[in-house]
């Protein structure tokens, strides 16, 4: 790895850490960058997942005030996320690499559609919260489990999926919902990352660079993320996501 390669991965980690905390979908920044430097898709995904954990931790700490009185809710949802993420990680390790190459482009396209639809989705969620108070139940827990499986397997846009689910289930302000999302997405990355570290081939140089970048990006986003332009973020993520699909195909 050249110094220029390392700088590119470090910068991508910073951008992904910030985007994950503010919205979600940071994987669509780091994963294509690591692919572009010649790493196999599964190795790139595994290393990316582990590297993004520090950014998620920084985001959760940054949102600690919003989380303070939500611990019982977070605890219940975390159980569903943990089981789902472990299942997704095992699927990634047991299915052949060819399955990953076939499945992930579809996952990325779905993520891009969700990102483009996010403004409309947010509007619908606000209207829903204004007229209904939906609480945790079997459907919500099942949906969070399913997103955990997705997060353990690949994870691009799992944050947006969680925001959609939690926005319906929790009668609360968006920033408080986003705080819960950061914890759950970070937990999915952490548990799947632990499994990958024990059982998969990991590019630890890539992990270190993404981890350093995501920690800085996550810390900044937790403090200033509310000021980011959603339109600019969406444009950047969609552009990088398209590059990833082309690269995989």
Measured by DSSP, the beta-strand proportion falls in under 5%
Overall residue-averaged pLDDT value: 83
- Helix tally equals 12
Which outline best applies? globular
Helix content: over 70%
Order of helices and strands: HHHHHHHHHHHH
Number of domains: 1
Biggest β-sheet: count, sense, barrel? none
Count every beta strand, where a strand is a DSSP E run of 2 or more residues. 0
Query: What is the CA-CA span between the terminal residues?
Result: 24 Å
Unreliable stretches (pLDDT < 50, length at least 5) are none
The structural class is: mainly alpha
Query: Which radius of gyration do the C-alpha atoms yield?
Result: 17 Å
Question: What does it look like?
Answer:
This protein is mostly helical and 249 residues long. The protein has twelve helices and no strands. Helix 3 crosses helix 10, helix 7 (97-131) packs parallel to helix 9 (158-169) and helix 7 (97-131) runs antiparallel to helix 12. It has one domain.
Summarize this structure briefly.
This protein is mainly α and 249 residues long. It has helices at residues 3-22, 27-36, 41-51, 53-62, 64-67, 71-94, 97-131, 138-153, 158-169, 174-199, 204-224, 230-248.
